[in-house]
Amino acid sequence: MSATIKSSFNKHEVEVQTNDAMKQMHIAAKSTGYGSSINGGELLLLALATCFCNDIYREAAKRNIEVEGVEVEVTGEFGAEGEPGFNFKYKAKVTSDVPQTEIEALIAHTDQVAEIHNTLRKGLNITLTK
């Protein structure tokens, strides 16, 4: 997997890739013309929401649960420059015809297997290379 940004004045190109599947995303440049109009914290929260949403569908299929819709809201806080984020929370709503107890079990299970969540919960090393 990889993510690449190429940024210059009024130009902001974003590509993500998993295996051989490369996708371009449109994220506008900042109003100043330099950098991204979306900040890294917002993208981190979006990554958590996206992971959980996709994993709900994956785990529901394994349980033969038909899901009509998923809504995930992730919140977090960031302090001063250089400080790590904190107070990360999320909530999910799954729409399905199965009993509420099955939906709650699906959500709880998905919380345990969501890869991005587990990566951040464990902590990770990020290495700058040349």
Annotate the secondary structure layout:
Blueprint: E1 2-8, E2 11-18, E3 21-26, H1 40-62, E4 67-77, E5 86-96, H2 100-113, H3 115-122
Antiparallel strand pairs: 1-2, 2-3, 4-5
Helix pairs in contact: 1-2
Give structural notes:
- The protein has 130 residues and is α+β, with helices and mostly antiparallel strands.
- It folds into two domains: 1-38, no CATH class; 39-130, K homology (KH) domain (GMP Synthetase, Chain A, domain 3, 2-Layer Sandwich), CATH 3.30.300.
- 35% of the residues lie in helices and 33% in strands.
- It has three helices and five strands; from the N terminus they run βββαββαα.
- The protein has helices at residues 40-62, 100-113, 115-122; strands at 2-8, 11-18, 21-26, 67-77, 86-96.
- Strands 1-2-3 form a three-stranded antiparallel sheet, with no helix packed on it. Strands 4-5 form a two-stranded antiparallel ribbon.
- α1 (40-62) crosses α2.
- The longest helix has 23 residues, at 40-62.
- The two termini are 18 Å apart.
Structural class: alpha+beta
Largest sheet properties: 3 strands, antiparallel
CATH homolog superfamily of the largest domain: K homology (KH) domain
From the N-terminal CA to the C-terminal CA, the straight-line distance is 18 Å
Assigned CATH architecture of the largest domain: 2-Layer Sandwich
Mean pLDDT: 96
Strand order in space, largest sheet? 1-2-3
Written as H for each helix and E for each strand, in order along the chain, the element string is: EEEHEEHH
Percent of residues in beta strands: 25-35%
Overall 3D form: globular
What is the highest CATH level, the class of the largest domain? Alpha Beta
Measured as a percent range, the helix fraction is 25-40%
Please count the helical segments.
3
Low-confidence stretches: none
Overall number of domains = 2
- Please provide the count of β strands: 5
**Backbone CA Rg:** 17 Å
* CATH topology term of the largest domain: GMP Synthetase, Chain A, domain 3
Oligomer category: single chain
